[in-house]
Write a sequence for this structure.
């Protein structure tokens, strides 16, 4: 069964979703939780069976799909994708379990299960077309979730979300076809298999063009400045569960794809575009942090802070060394946990008061102490307090980029201080002081169902902040493989210089990851 | 002294005519039946037509086998040309017709299906299209085209509504103009080369190295305009939305597939040698035509308030997309054209059939047109299955993987990329993104809005019967599971295209 565990992970939720149409709507919630739990256990089993000493792909499967055109269903998992898959399974589980009362809950749960299929599919696909397939397919359930259960502007928000991503990915598709064509030119065979493409060394000018084509697809998904405008709308209008999944998993598709596609396929172009992208990332960090400070709506604060942290992930990725990339992957997971939890928390208060405006609250700490505590922990994690999960990732990402440019890293570092400002001021407005509104006096504290989602997230936040080694080790192993590949493939002098030769300075990595522990 | 003309029957190769003669005989049979005993039920004629088309299909399978063994077959004084293109396009023509004809078995009674002439004309039309694709003789192309077109005008008019007459007359006048252009263009080529066979024309022009390039261009302009009308390329597209709106939804879906593939084949035979002869001007014109057809049609589709008109513009845009294959003109692009059109016929016929089963006899007061977007608002609440199927067709038309049309788009884009048309590939990709919006609009109406007036969902399947549902189910399954069949289809299509030298 382990031979096919990845296919099971992908298609089990889809099959369950189809069968879910038969389940009575009074029992659908239990059904959804059960299915998602099984999926999560399968993901944990995958982790258990995963050999963290191997840097390459594991549990690979291959089925011919359109062999005449080189399209095959190839899946595999390595240290980079493993934890995002577990995270996706985890969030779907707690997301379904903590769903409040909603209309058409049956449709929602079935949609979430379909969404889970596409999420797992994106992270395990090793064939560009299969990757594209799941990537595009993930838009449809999310469109429906935002469009059917969202706020007043939901249709505008959902269509904007869909079209933005759709446009970007079509440009990416043209890039993929180019890549396959080059492969065809070089070898005489058509192939969309990523591992085949890794072996291809492209001339620098082609690399640059293809990098740009892929960049459009990925950057819109991340979303990078200036393509980020769809995200605040999507978050603002989406129901809690939609925001949680969007922030925790769907955005990670973009950053993951950078590491999976852009870096190893186009090492020279990655070096060439390192500074422009770093500048964009820093603009993204600072600008969105400032925008976040200006928001009146707590959900928008969380949304913009989420974009701001995605900037740090991008910065770490384009450090192009092991520390940076490892840090950015760790930060993806950390960001998933923390911003997912924050959206949950916003959902909790929204369910009670049906408003998200911070001015409507104040003094909540005395009314809802447990809620205030969890919110406080997550907020500290979001700011990047040491001993929380975000700190490890941010530290490694910035450390990685420090080796490329001191000034830019310094700028990014200051932005994190701005992050602290807006988060703390939001916290102050909502939780401290006296209770000013009568409606807030008798708000019930978090209930059991909500705690089921929030406690595990809190535990993870602190546990991985104190002891990140179980994740860092397999991630590090796979990242070393990628950086080695990039160093060997790179053509230009500068790229050889910027992308470190791992076999030479191995000692440094163990030292730096030692610091993080 | 004149030597006696000696033609042996074998050299005529009359078997090449078999696939066209079958529907003609079938049509005559239907008329004869009507002579002996009129007032028969439409089910008789539908099933008869289906059987005849089935026999036609088997005949095509036979000639496909012959083609694979012996290569291109010519017959009847080289008038008939059975090559891979002819066979593939006939497969599409007959296959799509077989999917179309059971759509006559509606729940409501419609005027046109009570006449046996409808079915006879339908079969004549198919024969016309088959002649059109299975020859490279300009005169026979013209005859086939006119046979088919005249039959089609009548079929539209038989729908017996004011708008249908308007549509038929509009189509007829436009068609007559196109026919005039076609004959004039052919005349120019005949005057230049002394032949009406496309391969002879190509050979003669090649031999004198395009000495009379001015006249060639005049001829090309006329032929291009004529095919522009038939393929509804911008700016010759103006009739399309009106004609689609006036004809029944089923026939509109049919018109978006079958007449166009026939015109594509002729365009392929005619223009590909001209483009590759280094007539840069023609390449530019065609390039502009392709880009304009895709883009403008998409933009017009954005602002439509009626789903059928939206689908009409979307069909124009798809035709423009496929026209790119003729511009590119490699084996890969020509195979992509067939792959695309096979997958497109499933999806598009499916989506028009969804409109067909929701056809009302009378227009309710709150609706401005037969298939306005409002009508579909909140459809998921009352008939979730129908809404999901409709959404499926829309997603497929938008080119979302893994549904049918995605594979066609993929291969077509790849063809563009592989032959250096990078900018074109990008324009095509961005057009798919624009198109995404109007397909999405229908999904938004169906899934995210509330119904305008309360209804029990009956309106969405008012016209449905088991045969119609079967056809839709067939199209839906084909759309979802296309990824299984794509490989075989691709190999099959490439084999035929490659072996006929395109």
């Amino acid at each position: 069964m382990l031979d096919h565990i990845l296919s099971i992970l992908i298609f089990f939720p889809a099959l369950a979703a189809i069968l879910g149409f038969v389940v009575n709507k009074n029992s659908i919630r239990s059904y959804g939780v059960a299915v998602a739990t099984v999926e999560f256990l399968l993901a944990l089993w995958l982790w258990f069976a995963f050999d963290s000493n191997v840097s390459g792909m594991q549990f690979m499967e291959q089925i011919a799909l359109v062999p005449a055109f080189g399209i095959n269903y190839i899946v595999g998992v390595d240290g980079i994708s493993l934890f995002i898959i577990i995270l996706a399974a985890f969030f779907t589980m707690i997301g379904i379990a903590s769903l409040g009362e909603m209309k058409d809950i049956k449709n929602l749960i079935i949609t979430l299960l379909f969404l889970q299929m596409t999420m797992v599919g994106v992270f395990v696909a090793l064939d560009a077309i299969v990757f594209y397939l799941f990537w595009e397919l993930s838009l449809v359930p999310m469109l429906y979730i935002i469009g059917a259960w969202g706020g007043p502007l939901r249709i505008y928000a959902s269509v904007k979300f869909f079209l933005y991503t759709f446009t970007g990915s079509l440009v990416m598709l043209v890039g993929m076809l180019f890549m396959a064509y080059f492969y065809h030119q070089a070898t005489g065979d058509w192939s969309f298999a990523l591992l085949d493409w890794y072996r291809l060394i492209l001339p620098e000018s082609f690399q640059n063009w293809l990098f740009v084509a892929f960049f459009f697809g990925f950057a819109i998904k991340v979303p990078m400045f200036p393509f980020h405008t769809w995200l605040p709308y999507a978050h603002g209008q989406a129901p809690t569960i939609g925001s949680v999944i969007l922030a925790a998993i769907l955005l990670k598709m973009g950053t993951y794809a950078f590491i999976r596609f852009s870096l190893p396929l186009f090492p020279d172009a990655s070096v060439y575009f390192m500074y422009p992208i770093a500048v964009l990332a820093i603009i993204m960090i600072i600008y969105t942090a400032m925008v976040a400070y200006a928001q009146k709506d707590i959900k928008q604060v969380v949304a913009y802070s989420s974009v701001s942290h995605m900037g740090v992930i991008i910065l770490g990725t384009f450090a192009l060394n092991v520390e940076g990339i490892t840090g950015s992957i760790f930060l993806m997971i950390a960001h998933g946990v923390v911003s997912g939890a924050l959206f949950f928390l916003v959902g909790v208060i929204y369910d009670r008061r049906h408003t998200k405006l911070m001015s409507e609250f104040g003094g909540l700490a005395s009314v809802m102490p447990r809620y205030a505590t969890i919110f406080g922990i997550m907020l500290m994690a979001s700011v990047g307090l040491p001993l929380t999960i975000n700190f490890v990732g941010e530290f490694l990402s910035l450390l990685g980029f420090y080796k490329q440019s001191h000034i830019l890293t310094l700028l990014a570092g200051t932005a994190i201080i701005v992050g602290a400002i807006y988060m703390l001021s939001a916290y102050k407005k909502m939780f401290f002081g006296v209770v000013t509104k009568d409606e807030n006096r008798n708000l019930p504290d978090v209930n059991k169902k909500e705690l089921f989602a929030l406690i595990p997230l809190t535990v993870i936040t602190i546990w991985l902040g104190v002891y990140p080694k179980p994740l860092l080790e397999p991630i590090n192993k796979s990242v070393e493989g990628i950086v080695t590949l990039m160093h060997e493939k790179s053509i230009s002098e500068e790229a050889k210089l910027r992308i470190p030769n791992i076999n030479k300075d191995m000692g440094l990595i163990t030292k730096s990851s030692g610091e993080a522990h | 002294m004149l030597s006696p003309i000696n033609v042996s029957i074998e050299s005529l190769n009359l078997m090449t005519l078999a696939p066209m003669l079958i529907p003609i005989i079938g049509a005559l049979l239907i008329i004869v039946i009507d002579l002996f005993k009129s007032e028969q039920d439409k089910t008789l004629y539908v099933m008869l037509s289906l059987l005849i088309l089935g026999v036609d299909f088997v005949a095509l399978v036979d000639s496909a086998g012959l083609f694979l063994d012996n290569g291109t077959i010519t017959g009847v004084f080289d008038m008939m040309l059975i090559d891979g293109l002819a066979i593939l396009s006939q497969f599409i023509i007959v296959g799509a017709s077989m999917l179309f004809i059971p759509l006559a078995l509606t729940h409501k009674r419609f005027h046109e299906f009570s006449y046996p002439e409808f079915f006879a004309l339908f079969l004549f039309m198919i024969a016309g299209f088959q002649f059109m694709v299975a020859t490279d003789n300009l005169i026979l192309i013209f005859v086939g085209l006119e046979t088919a077109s005249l039959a089609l005008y009548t079929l539209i008019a038989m729908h017996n509504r004011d708008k249908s007459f308007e549509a038929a007359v509009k189509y007829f006048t436009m068609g007559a103009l196109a026919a005039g252009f076609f004959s004039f263009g052919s005349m120019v080529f005949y005057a230049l080369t002394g032949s009406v066979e496309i391969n002879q024309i190509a050979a003669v022009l090649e031999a004198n190295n395009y000495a009379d390039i001015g006249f060639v261009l005049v001829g090309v302009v006329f032929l291009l305009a004529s095919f522009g009308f038939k393929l509804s390329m911008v700016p010759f597209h103006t009739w399309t939305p009106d004609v689609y709106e006036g004809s029944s939804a089923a026939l509109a879906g049919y018109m978006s597939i079958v007449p166009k593939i026939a015109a594509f084949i002729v365009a392929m035979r005619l223009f590909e040698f001209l483009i590759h002869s280094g007539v840069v001007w023609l390449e530019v014109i065609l390039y502009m035509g392709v880009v304009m057809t895709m883009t403008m049609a998409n933009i017009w589709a954005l602002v439509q308030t009626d789903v059928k008109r939206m689908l009409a513009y979307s069909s124009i845009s798809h035709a423009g997309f496929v026209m790119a294959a003729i511009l590119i003109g490699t084996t890969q692009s020509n195979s992509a054209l067939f792959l695309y059109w096979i997958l497109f016929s499933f999806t598009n016929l499916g989506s028009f059939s969804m409109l067909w089963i929701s056809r009302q006899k009378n227009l309710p007061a709150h609706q401005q047109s037969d298939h306005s977007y409002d009508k579909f608002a909140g459809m998921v609440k009352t008939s979730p299955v129908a809404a999901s199927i409709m959404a499926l067709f829309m997603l497929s038309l938008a080119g979302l993987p893994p549904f049918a049309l995605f594979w066609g788009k993929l291969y077509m884009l790849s063809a563009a990329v592989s032959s250096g048309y990078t900018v074109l590939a990008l324009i095509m990709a961005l057009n798919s993104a624009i198109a995404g919006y109007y397909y999405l609009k229908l999904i938004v109406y169906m899934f995210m809005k509330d119904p305008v007036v309360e209804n029990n969902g009956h309106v969405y399947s008012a016209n449905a019967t088991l045969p119609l549902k079967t056809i839709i189910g067939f199209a839906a399954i084909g759309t979802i599971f296309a990824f299984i069949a794509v490989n075989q289809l691709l190999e099959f299509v490439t084999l035929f295209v490659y072996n006929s030298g395109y």
